[in-house]
Design goal:
With 204 residues, the protein is of the alpha+beta class. Helix content is 25%, strand content 11%. Mean pLDDT is 70; it is low at 96-107, 163-182, 185-196 and 198-204.
Length: 204
């Protein structure tokens, strides 16, 4: 109430924080996410380790996330982007009402690339692999991945319609997935890399 500075936080680009001043019970740190007390930040879909500058679990949507490194944080560009849910990178100056609104910075980036490069075979394979995997999953995991699958199919339809054009993907696909639907994942469980979904994961 006196305006005296109690606690001060200093952040490095990837979120490692130095705290000075009085001890604080505040658990909300980098990008507004909770420190779970062990040095990890809870990003809903998975946990993030700011000291290592990496997520500790693979991207739950795999290569659909737009990066071949499934543990990287926003493609190693934290000054330009942030990821508030562990799945989708957004430009810092972009509105966040729906994390898929800006498709160039979202999990639908491969769909945009497929449209611009007319890479129908790669898109068909991605859709086929995702369909096979979803059949082995249940619950919220299957629901979220089904939304991603729908986006990929929309991209395939657009690719068939505009074979002579090079269109940017921004604004072409529906805003289907929102952060609230991602609640319920257990990010501490690894995402399988094969075609099966272990029983311990499929219920989530």
């Amino acid at each position: 109430s006196t305006g005296t500075l109690q606690t001060q936080y200093t952040y490095e680009p990837f979120g490692y924080v130095t705290q000075t001043g009085l001890a604080s019970s505040n658990s909300y740190k980098y990008t507004g996410r909770e420190d779970d007390g062990s040095g990890l930040d809870y990003y809903r879909a998975r946990y993030y380790h700011p000291r290592l500058q990496r997520f500790i679990g693979e991207d739950p949507i795999g290569l659909v996330g737009g990066d071949v490194n499934l543990y990287a944080y926003v493609e190693n560009s934290p000054l330009q982007f942030s990821d508030r849910i562990g799945l989708i990178k957004l430009r810092e100056n972009q509105p966040e009402s729906n994390p898929l609104r800006t498709l160039d910075d979202s999990a639908a980036k491969p769909a945009k690339d497929a449209i611009n490069n007319r890479d129908m075979s790669a898109l068909n394979k991605a859709i086929s692999d995702l369909e096979a995997f979803i059949k082995t999953c249940k619950g919220k995991r299957a629901k979220v991945l089904s939304k991603v699958l729908k986006l990929a199919k929309e991209a395939r339809g657009l690719l068939k319609l505009v074979p002579l054009l090079s269109l940017p993907a921004e604004g072409l696909l529906p805003d289907e997935l929102n952060a609230a639907e991602l609640e319920g994942f257990d990010p501490r469980l690894p995402f399988p890399t094969g075609n099966s979904c272990p029983d311990s994961m499929c219920q989530r």
